[in-house]
Design a protein that fits this description.
This protein has about 240 residues and is mostly helical. The protein contains ten helices and three strands; from the N terminus they run ααβαααααββααα.
């Protein structure tokens, strides 16, 4: 006859069960990160979300455009423009810009609107695996996937995937699709100004139109070009 477990025995089992669950969740989330270290993603969570939105809204003419190309088939001016615009400490940090986060929190404490301080690594994690929103759950998962990506991928791979899944216009994802849509050329032929315009659209690519840039976008593109020069150009990413 099997004796019932004592309360103390049950309590001792819970830490082991929680550890097993935590390890299982780590393995399940790390596996796709490990696979995508070598395999090119054909889509992303944000692309799937946009397709679903188009279907729900009855956008019969919607066509998502994206084509993955390696970093070697992009103009070297584009990756450095993205870094200059979005995350100038990208080669130096380990996924999080703690100084930028601290400054954003200080501004919020002083009553300013909370501004983003996401790195390219964080944006890659969010765009690839998660969904739009500002919930604490999503931010926690974003941090989790960012750590996994930084541990698993070299910086060049992070930038390569980001450049291929970033949205540059409504339904236009990645450098290759954007270059062909807006400039009629492959990503490898993008000029300094064209790369800066693409990077300038990233805060809000649906409202900031690369093919019809506003005065604000032109000023921002010029600022990005100056930042690229100050960083040392494409050689900055070779460190």
């Amino acid at each position: 006859m099997k004796l019932p477990l004592r309360p103390q025995s049950r309590r001792r089992r819970w830490p082991r069960r929680l550890a097993v669950i935590a390890l299982a969740m780590l393995a399940l989330t790390w596996l796709p990160v490990l696979i995508l270290r070598f395999a090119s993603p054909s889509t992303s969570a944000f692309m799937v979300e946009r397709r679903i939105q188009a279907w729900r809204d009855g956008e019969s003419g919607f066509a998502l455009k994206q084509r993955f190309v390696p970093l070697t088939q992009m103009s070297p001016e584009l990756p450095i423009a993205l870094v200059a615009a979005e995350d100038q400490k990208f080669p130096l940090h380990h996924g999080f810009d703690l100084q930028a986060i601290g400054e954003a929190m200080d501004d919020a404490d002083e009553g300013a609107r909370l501004r983003g301080a996401s790195t390219i690594s964080q944006q890659t994690a969010k765009n690839l695996f998660l969904w739009n929103g500002r919930s604490l759950v999503r931010k926690g998962l974003e941090a989790h996937f960012t750590v996994l990506i930084e541990l698993t991928w070299p910086k060049a791979r992070i930038l390569e995937v980001y450049a291929n899944i970033a949205e540059f216009g409504d339904g236009i994802y990645g450098a290759e699709a954007a270059a062909r849509q807006f400039f009629g050329k492959p990503a490898r032929d993008l000029s300094v100004r064209e790369s800066a315009l693409l990077a300038a659209s990233l805060p809000n690519p649906v409202k900031l139109h690369v093919d019809a840039p506003s005065a604000y976008m032109l000023r921002r593109a010029a600022w990005i070009e100056r930042q690229v020069r100050q960083l040392g150009g494409p050689a900055y990413l070779a460190r």
